[in-house]
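Below is our example:
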Amino acid sequence: MMEIVNIRIDDRLIHGQVAAVWSLSTKATRIMVVDDQVVKDPVNKEALKMACPSQCKLSILTVEKAAANLCSGKYEGERVFLVAKGPRTIRDLYDHGFHMEKVNVGNMGGKQNTRMLKKAVSVSEEDVENFLYLADKGVAITAQMVPGDEAVDFVKLIRG
């Protein structure tokens, strides 16, 4: 049986925390990057391949392909760590039929028209709408930078 060991939102995708800390603590055997733009970017894809830890296979997929693969059980016997840049991608996965129990919010850097909810996590109004949509569907959303940190209820942060 395929096991989803973590679904993480991190706008840096694969980097030190995901590659070294999260992949080891979850014993992931596959890192799945879900991003419709990265799929079309050969330079970014190459960087992700270099950043992926050697003990993990790597998939870089569109939302549609990722949802199809996950729903069909394609990764039988694997421990999948899914990472996306933002909540819109996770919402789109949900709407394509891949229903998850929980999502971990890691890093969402500050951009224009965002507000900081906690260190390294800033959200726009669209992000808030997408997070609340998922929460309304019963998805538990927590904020946790590294496995040793306490997982904080992200919806409570949004609602202040």
